[in-house]
């Protein structure tokens, strides 16, 4: 399945809803989306991954790139994910220490550091 | 020893094809449904890595994936054309520092989105119990094996 | 010229894998949805035929399928190890006599379930407009081409 | 998708409902089913193909074999099929002249030569 992307604004945060497979083929689309958001001044991102079926290390790289970009502006990038098979790759790579991972978009919107 | 070999031009779209084939053959070879997600991710990592190696070293030569189903093992081998050094220089999972990866390196523009070379291999070794990475004159071989019940033989009547 | 090559041990189960791969690559190559059923059937026929040829002539050697996507054409080539005579001796569709095929040949037991050799090729030539069957020292090549819009190149940004 | 097979008796006829893919991999199962039916004395068969997704020439061969077997006992083999993509292969091969093809099981059950 291909990647689907949609964004909406909630207060000072921007929610990016991602669906489908984030892999070496589709990751460029996600990267472009994140770059667009940051360059238009959106520094507090919530990436909702509940509809993601597949995530590989290329996808992780794009998320890490996004995190670096928002951090350069004192921003934040929070993930929403409860799917065990997706969480597993964050755990294996130690990236659970880097990304705040929330159980729902609401929780992510309310969270602060 | 039923075997399927897939060679493909080093393009991201074909990594999806490789995943699809590996998944179908693994299922047919009797790999447990619970393990199939792991197979899909590991094959995707191995093939993405090989595509990246080829794109920088030898974009014309195909990446090769071999699926073998013998007795109670299902094996996937992905061969890229990269020389010995590539595989040797790659960090093991233990060496990855997630914090460092994500440090706000605002001074360097453009910000790189690719994780360090070897990250894919590190994911594989964190994921798959039985994996071997070797290099020879052909390039680097990533060989991963899972348990399976052989149901691939032709119908026995 | 993005290409995927699949070689597989001559087993019926792998014909399904070959169909699955060809369908996924054809779709990705931009072959029209309306034509995909035709691609699936034609690829299945070509591979089933090749598997049968190998099983009788050379069960150990793999069947090869090559998928090529260039410009606005999607091409599938299936190569079996059968010698020249096989392909030459096969009837064209015009020569098939459906009534004769199904005649109640009660005297011969066991009743054969296989249609005459060449039936698969006849189906392909009835189905696919652009098809060529050739033989050389490698064996017999069945080459089928369909229109496609090339969407296979890597993302252009 | 794999092959599914079920049979039921309707008067002097036997309805075989087939689903999934009839190809070089699954055709042996269908052949075996048809042979079993004929050897246990069922000579009037209706093969319902409405749930068949895929049929190739190996599958056709098995149907032709079934037809020969029932004809050897003055029986019949009728097909139920309205799917264009399945009908196409019968048309290409001229087998529409050999098999009575019906639009529903009811129609096939009522038909006589
Ligand atoms: N992981 C995959 N790898 C390869 N092919 C796939 C994969 N998932 C789906 N497909 C196949 O690719 C084709 C298109 O799938 P999809 O990803 O939805 O299309 P696209 O990415 O071109 O929009 C389908 O034939 C499907 O069987
Ligand atoms: N035509 C096909 N060719 C090859 N693989 C297929 C085909 N259709 C489905 N598959 C794949 O084969 C696997 C099992 O499919 P299925 O045919 O339902 O199983 P089985 O025939 O083993 O019962 C799935 O991974 C599916 O993606």
Give a short overview:
Helices cover 38% and strands 32% of the residues of chain A. With 113 residues, chain A is an alpha/beta fold.
**Mean pLDDT, all residues of chain B:** 81
Number of strands of chain A: 5
CATH architecture of chain A: 2-Layer Sandwich
Number of DSSP helical runs of chain A: 4
Helix proportion of residues of chain B, in percent? Answer: 25-40%
CATH class of chain A: Alpha Beta
SSE arrangement of chain B, N to C: EHHEEHHHEE
CATH architecture of chain B: 2-Layer Sandwich
Biggest sheet features of chain A: 5 strands, mixed
* CATH T-level topology of chain B: Heat Shock Protein 90
Hetero groups in this structure are:
adenosine-5'-diphosphate
Let me know the CATH homologous superfamily of chain B.
Histidine kinase-like ATPase, C-terminal domain
Biggest beta-sheet profile of chain B: 5 strands, antiparallel
How would you sum up this structure, described in words?
- The complex is a heterotetramer, with two copies of chain A (113 residues) and two copies of chain B (157 residues).
- Chain A has helices at 27-39, 57-71, 84-92, 105-110; strands at residues 4-10, 13-22, 44-55, 76-80, 101-102.
- Chain A is an alpha/beta fold.
- The longest helix of chain A is centred in the middle third of the chain and has 15 residues, at 57-71.
- In chain B, 39% of the residues lie in helices and 24% in strands.
- In chain B, β4 and β5 form a beta hairpin.
- With 157 residues, chain B is α+β, with helices and mostly antiparallel strands.
- Chain B has a five-stranded antiparallel beta sheet with strand order 1-2-3-5-4.
- Chain B has a single domain (3-147), classed as Heat Shock Protein 90.
- Chain B contains five helices and five strands; from the N terminus they run βααββαααββ.
- Classes of the chains: A alpha/beta (113), B alpha+beta (157).
- Chains B and D meet through loops of B and α1 of D.
- β1 of chain B pairs antiparallel with β1 of chain C.
- The structure holds adenosine-5'-diphosphate (2 copies).
- One adenosine-5'-diphosphate sits between chains B (16-17, 19-20) and C (23-24, 27-28).
- One adenosine-5'-diphosphate (ADP) sits between chains B (16-17, 19-20) and C (23-24, 27-28).
